Design the sequence.
């Protein structure tokens, strides 16, 4: 894979070298990441050449928030700039390195947790109105909690009907994982392959191809799914259709509920769920677990015997 874009300015080769270095460590360094690096390269090119490559003035300008810019985009640029500067320092340069934690993203966003009856209505609506591929996509998101981009990237060979597993390749953080399918998803997926004539297809063929036979794009698929959510009347508090990613939030919450109901220790459940969802650690998983009051009370009730053993009758 050498799809590296051209970086402008006098230090373009350094940016190219950095991308190759990161890829040698197993990171994918997608085009979006490279676009941020290109923005940094262009910005630096407008300043006098500095022996440290990134001068303090340039660093301070690059880490500042642009008018109307989302904090998340600012944080992304700072993180990429910091990693690039650390790499430069390892090569003997003396760049001005942005301090760690310079800006922290904050949000009051609360995901919309979809209930099982609501999802049943969504699937019934989809089964009447959209293609086979979109119907399978919805079931993959709901039953596995995978990201829409991961689902769209699946090839026929990633679905192992005999073993009842789904292989997620090179996902976020370049992590690969193997997921078991539920009985209902297995039955639907096997029928999907037969109905769409994919049982004997090449292993590299897209599992849910577009009308032209190409790999579907996550953003296009997301638009199509939101129209299904709108028709099904599953909306946010603001009256807008839920997002496909809300199904991932919902999966995390409902999976934790089932683990707690089975009397599993929540501190055992979180690492298992983190691994299944493709997170690097449980910190990322905790982000998804925006509990309803009912769920939180169930967790407290489930942990009461442990608390009694540890703390006795103390209040």
Sequence:
């Amino acid at each position: 894979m050498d799809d590296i874009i051209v970086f402008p300015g006098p230090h373009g080769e350094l940016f190219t070298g950095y991308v190759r270095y990161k890829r040698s460590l197993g990171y994918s360094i997608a085009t979006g990441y490279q676009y941020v690096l290109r923005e940094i390269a262009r910005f630096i090119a407008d300043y006098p050449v500095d022996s440290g490559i990134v001068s303090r003035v340039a660093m301070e300008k690059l880490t500042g928030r642009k008018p109307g810019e989302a904090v998340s985009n600012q944080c992304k640029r700072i993180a990429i700039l910091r990693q690039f500067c650390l790499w430069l320092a390892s090569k003997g340069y003396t760049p001005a390195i942005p301090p760690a934690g310079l800006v922290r993203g904050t949000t009051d966003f609360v995901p919309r947790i979809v209930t099982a009856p609501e999802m049943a209505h969504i699937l019934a609506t989809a089964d009447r109105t959209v293609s086979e591929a979109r119907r399978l996509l919805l079931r993959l998101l709901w039953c596995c909690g995978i990201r829409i981009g991961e689902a769209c990237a699946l090839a026929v060979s990633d679905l192992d009907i005999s073993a009842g597993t789904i292989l997620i390749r090179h996902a976020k953080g370049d992590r690969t994982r193997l997921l078991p399918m539920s009985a209902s998803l297995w039955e639907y997926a096997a029928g999907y392959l037969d109905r769409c004539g994919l049982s004997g297809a090449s292993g590299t063929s897209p599992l849910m191809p577009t009308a032209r036979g190409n790999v579907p794009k996550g953003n296009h698929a997301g638009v199509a799914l939101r129209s299904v959510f709108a028709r099904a009347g599953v909306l946010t508090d603001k009256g807008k259709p839920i997002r496909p990613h809300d199904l991932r939030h919902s999966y995390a919450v409902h999976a934790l509920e089932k683990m707690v109901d089975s009397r599993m220790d929540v501190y055992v459940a979180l690492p298992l769920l983190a691994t299944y969802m493709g997170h690097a650690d449980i910190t990322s998983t905790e982000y998804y677990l925006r509990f309803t009051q009912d769920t939180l009370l169930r967790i407290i009730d489930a942990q009461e015997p442990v608390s009694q053993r540890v703390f006795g009758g103390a209040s």
The mean pLDDT is 87. The longest strand covers residues 165-168. The beta strands are 159-160, 165-168, 177-180. The chain has three domains: 12-90, 116-241, 247-311.
